[in-house]
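User: Can you predict the 3D structure for this chain?
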Amino acid sequence: MQEAVASLLSSWHSFYSIIGSSAAALTGLVFVVITLIARAETPGSGDGIATFGTPNVAHFGAALFIAALLSAPWPTFWNVSLLLGLRGLAE
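Assistant: Here is the predicted structure, written as structure tokens:
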């Protein structure tokens, strides 16, 4: 039983390695940039955080979502194409 579970999960190893490290890097990057913007004591620095944070998080999140879909071990490809099509329609 454990060997069967281990063989099923072995194909997901690269998926979790890629997605986990990418998500951690994205989170770290956003925190660093927001910290740097917040330390700049200029008028309207709060606008800079909103201007930088929202679109970059949305686009990096979309790229991470697409990478997650494409690196998952799908049994058939129509599942992936359907999800990518729905993601494209959402844009």
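Residues 2-90 form one domain. DSSP finds four helices and no strands in the chain.
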